[in-house]
Specification:
The complex is a heterodimer of chains A (175) and B (185). Chain A has four helices and ten strands, in the order ααββββββββαβαβ. Chain A is α/β, with parallel strands linked by helices and 175 residues long. Chain A has two domains: 30 residues, no CATH class; 123 residues, Nucleotidyltransferase, domain 5 (2-Layer Sandwich), CATH 3.30.420. Chain A has a six-stranded mixed beta sheet with strand order 1-10-9-2-3-4, covered by helices on one side. Chain A has a two-stranded antiparallel sheet with strand order 5-6. In chain A, helix 3 packs across helix 4. In chain A, 29% of the residues are buried. The radius of gyration of chain B is 29 Å and the shape is elongated. Classes of the chains: A alpha/beta (175), B alpha/beta (185). Strand 10 of chain A pairs antiparallel with strand 1 of chain B.
């Protein structure tokens, strides 16, 4: 009898301390629960700049300019090339390949964005909902070291595709 | 002995179902957790269309505040009468370039984000805002090689000044509406 009781005690796990830990983790995770609609996956190629801006992002077409590629709504559109930095010899800066450029317009990006704008307009007309109407808003997520000539071409191309309201996505510095 | 054993299990709470629940909740919340919070800065393309009718004020020229960003520093354009009340500085000798209003701290070429003179820019923009309290627009004219983070920092400095509080205790709004111009091509 005595032997059997000892064996049953050994198989039972004391989970109280684990419960304590779990409860704390649960509270912490609930606190950091995402409340915004926009999400960014940070990587080596995409480090957003920090800013004191406080406006919360709203859902719109997402245009991501990483150091090596351009992505629209999660789908890669084109690659960027690396060229020598004219101001800092020996360093490389991202640039748009000459073959993709027509003046300031970036060909592949322009096609994709025009497609997106037409889809968004069609949805807006079909639903007739004020909220769904096409307002030309676009979320720009750009790597903090991106030179302005790439950014200007991207902004120009977006503008030509009727996306004229830019929202630059940044990391919030102050709460 | 037998009776004692029967009452023993009921004294301890069965935590296993709660554990199950919590173990499922944690991955779900981990997936949805956001460890960095995001914000957006609004900007528009320079407006294309008929010029806006301006209310003519005979004594006051409209402010067309522009900030030119280059590797050499920041140049404030369109506000010379505020920055130089005694008249603009003499034009530089032929063959030399006009130096920027706010040169880099370390010398002729800025090495990074912190090398630009943000503190002086804040002071100067406050001066301009004192003269033009109703103006809210600023045009950024960056050079080709200027990094995006410098643009964002300039927008931050131009938007509000958290060292000067207004009546409500909020940061003083300077020039929150930013337009990015094509820049020097």
């Amino acid at each position: 009898m005595k032997k059997a009781r000892r064996a049953s005690a050994a198989t039972e796990l004391n989970i109280t301390s684990m419960m304590d830990m779990m409860t704390i983790i649960l509270v912490f995770l609930l606190k950091s629960f995402a409340s915004t609609e926009v999400n960014v996956t940070p990587s080596d190629e995409l480090v957003l700049p920090f800013s004191t801006a406080t406006k919360n992002p709203e859902l719109a077409v997402q245009l991501t300019v990483e150091r090596d590629k351009i992505i629209v709504d999660g789908v890669e559109v084109m690659q960027l090339i690396e060229v020598d930095d004219p101001n800092n010899p020996g360093q490389k800066v991202p640039a748009v390949a000459e073959t993709d450029l027509k003046g300031q317009l970036i060909g592949p990006l322009s096609d994709r964005l025009t497609e997106k704008a037409e889809t968004a307009k069609a949805i807006g007309e079909k639903t007739g909902n004020e909220k769904m109407a096409f307002k030309g808003q676009i979320l720009l997520m750009v790597d903090s070291k991106m030179p302005f000539n790439v950014l200007r071409s991207v902004m120009y191309t977006a503008g030509q595709a009727q996306f004229g309201e830019f929202r630059f996505v940044v990391y919030k510095l102050r709460e | 002995m037998a009776m004692k054993r029967r009452t023993e299990p009921s004294q301890e709470l069965n935590l296993v179902p709660i554990m199950n629940l919590v173990t499922i909740l944690i991955p779900v919340l981990l997936m949805a957790a956001q460890f960095v919070s995001l914000a957006v800065i609004d900007s528009t393309l320079p407006a294309i269309g008929p010029p806006q009718p301006m209310e003519e004020e005979p004594d006051k020229k409209p402010l067309m505040l522009s900030l030119a960003l280059s590797q050499k520093g920041i140049t404030i354009l369109g506000a010379d009468m505020v920055l130089f009340p005694e008249g603009a500085p003499p034009a530089p000798a032929e063959g030399t370039e006009k130096p920027p209003t706010l040169p880099c701290k370390s010398g002729s070429t800025c090495t990074g984000l912190d090398d630009y003179d943000w503190e002086q820019l804040r002071v100067k923009l406050n001066l301009i805002k004192d003269q033009y309290p109703d103006d809210q627009n600023v045009i950024l004219v960056p050079d080709n090689a200027i990094h995006y983070e410098i643009l964002v920092k300039t927008m931050d400095v131009a938007r509000d000044d958290d060292q000067t509080k207004d009546a409500d205790g909020k940061a003083r709004l300077l020039f929150p509406f930013v337009v990015i111009a094509g820049g020097a091509i």
